[in-house]
Every structure is written in structure tokens, then in C-alpha cells.
Amino acid sequence: MSLIKWEPLNDIENLLGRAWGWPVNRSQPLLGVGDWNPRVDISESDGTYLIKADIPGVPKDEIKVTMDNGMLTIQGERKQEKEEENKRFHRVERFYGSFTRSFSLPEDADPGAIKATTHDGQLVITIPRKETALASTAIQVPVE
Length: 144
Fold this sequence. Notes:
- This protein is mainly β and about 140 residues long.
- The strands form two sheets. A four-stranded antiparallel beta sheet has the order 1-2-7-6, with no helix packed on it. A three-stranded antiparallel beta sheet has the order 3-4-5, with no helix packed on it.
- It is built from two helices and seven strands, in the order αβββββββα.
């Protein structure tokens, strides 16, 4: 029987691996190229929907935002730095490659007025809501 040295951090890494896709052991790669998605926050206030996506290291010219049939799609790519010949990596946790995120928008979203900006590694998409005639006119519905 061989003895295995107990390392408490391995238990934590195994737990994180099962929960968030981190490596089960240190010799495994994290995720392959193209296997990452930026985290987003979606909120609504004052007649506007707001989507904020974390995209650090993705240049503005590598980001594409499209709207088609009520579906908003964010696409982009973060390219890996060129490897130097004498460079030794001890740990690599950042994700590289292309990503795509799609969100279905509510019917009151105004696709013609969508604006997207990027600053400090964050993409902000502002989607105004259309004013509807039904919202401004109150009617009484008879109950039978």
C-alpha cells in the first residue's frame, strides 16, 4: 500500500471543480478554447433594459452585437498571448477563444434604439422600451 500525502487545498479544488468547471487536479487543463462565456447582469429601470457583460481582454473590434427576431446575441473573441520560448507557466486559469451569448428580449424592447458601449472590460448594452398605447389607456373590463 502506498501513502498519499494529504493536501487540504485539493479538497477545495475538487469541490470548485464540480461546482464551476475548475480542474479536478492541477495537471488537468481548465476548459478548452472557446469554452468560456462572459458573466452578465440584466436589469430594468426607468423604461430601459440594461445588459452588462464582463469581457476583459476582448478588444472592441472583436465584439459583435446583433438583434434578430427578438433575440439579442453577443459574440466576441479573446485571443491568447503568443507564447515565449523560455516562459514556464505555473498555473493558467484565464479563458481564451470565442464566445456567444444570446438573450430573448421582451416584446416591448425597441430594437431600433439599442446602444452598446465598452469601457474598462465591460460591455454595456442599453435597450429602451417602446411606449405602448395599452399602458397609457386604462379600460374597465366587465366581469360576467
